[in-house]
Amino acid sequence: MNADRKPMRSPGRLRLRTLLSIRWAAVLGQSASLVLVHYGLGYSLPLVECAVAIGASALLNLVLSLRGQIGRHLPDYHAVLYLAYDILQLAALLYYTGGLNNPFAVLILAPVIVSATALSRPATIGLGALSVAAITLLAFFHQPLPWPRPGFALPEYYMLGVWQALVIGILFIAAWVGSVAEESRAMGDALVETQVALSRAQRLSELGALAAAAAHELGSPLATIAVVAKEMARDVPKDSPLAADVALLIEQSDRCRDILAQLSRQPDQSHSFDPGRFMPLAQFLDFVAEPYRSEGKPIVIHTVPAEEQGGPPAGPEPEIERVPEMIHALGTLIQNGTQFARSAVRIEAQWGAETILIDIADDGPGFPPLLLDRLGEPYVSSRKDEGGHMGLGLFIAQTLLGRYGARLTFANRREGGARVTVAWDRAAAEGMARGADNG
């Protein structure tokens, strides 16, 4: 997983249809409030100026709707421009209707909320700054709000409180709501990557099964072709023009036989993903570690029953099913160890009657202390600044392990290096594929 490139994000997370719907709701709400206050309650409002501001939003929506493609995702900078317009339009309405005296001033938070939940952090900060500037100007410059008693005005300290409340609300939304939304988006992206990894493993499994089936089915007709070709070689004179063709036919049939034999021997295709095959724990770990021994670091595997450590009777060595997801997850942990180890990677496993513990340790620099509590979260890695490293390997491994009843913990060794411990329910480990299929 560490070699994968970070997936390209979509052009944007907001659809134009969503923004148009929000603005139509604002147009209807603003128009209804204007009519109710002016005609229903009898308060005199600057109808022309307010109607122009509301009409501008309606006209903009119509133009955008007529241009078509309202279902497309907007780039972030386009969405920022649309939301910035909404802030300025609402500020204009508030200017003509009392500024911060108007209870509807709280709606200035709406575009910032939309940005915090769907757009990037810089976009939210920019829109938040625009909103703060708008309410600051409205605190000093605005037309009077009509009151039942002429000349009535709210105290200045109350207006200062309203201004502070709105500013704090904007800052809270930009900082905390934006952080929560960003974490949610990161988790969603990571889950998509996990699904891609699972799909890739499943495709490899299917290809391996097809390769094994092809090798088996083609073996008989290929043997027949080879026999017939050899008989033709005996019957055709050596000086015949057909002798060279027969020799070529024999050579190519032998080559096909070698290719099929190689396919049937592929450890990562035909046999490794056979769900009907089980291995003792030690053999299973050796099988998972085998592809990473070529990286130049020795991988030492030691397994022992828990009863040798003074625990309860452990029973026979567990038989582990070679499930693609578990091979991928444990392989990722072993690969990380080989990449950071200075001399060797040690895998120590012990089993009991109910639990299997697997320690994967290296003698490298260890995990960064500041990241230790966050390891296993998406996009958390000490090598994110290095090309190709996404910080998703441990997240995907932890997700796959959790799917089969295992728990993953990270720690640093006192003597130096990192240790990853997999605590596995024995019953779940010995029936992984059956448990996943039933679930």
Helix content: 55-70%
Under CATH, the homologous superfamily of the largest domain reads Histidine kinase-like ATPase, C-terminal domain
Largest sheet: 5 strands, mixed
Strand order of the largest sheet: 4-6-7-9-8
* Average residue-wise pLDDT: 78
Proportion in β-strands? 5-15%
Low-confidence stretches: 1-11, 266-276, 433-439
**CATH C-level class of the largest domain:** Alpha Beta
Provide the structure class: alpha+beta
β-strand number: 9
Search tags:
Heat Shock Protein 90, 5-stranded mixed β-sheet, Helix Hairpins, alpha+beta, 3 domains, two-stranded antiparallel sheet
Task: Please summarize what this structure is.
The chain is 58% helix and 11% strand. The protein is an alpha+beta fold and 439 residues long.
Task: Describe the protein in words.
The chain has 439 residues and is an alpha+beta fold. It folds into 3 domains: 14-154, no CATH class; 197-271, Helix Hairpins, CATH 1.10.287; 278-438, Histidine kinase-like ATPase, C-terminal domain (Heat Shock Protein 90, 2-Layer Sandwich). 58% of the residues lie in helices and 11% in strands. The chain has 13 helices and 9 strands. The chain has helices at 16-40, 47-66, 76-96, 110-118, 121-140, 156-235, 242-265, 267-271, 281-289, 324-340, 393-403, 426-430, 432-438; strands spanning 14-15, 73-74, 278-280, 299-305, 319-321, 345-351, 355-362, 406-412, 418-425. A 5-stranded mixed beta sheet has the order 4-6-7-9-8. β6 and β7 form a beta hairpin.
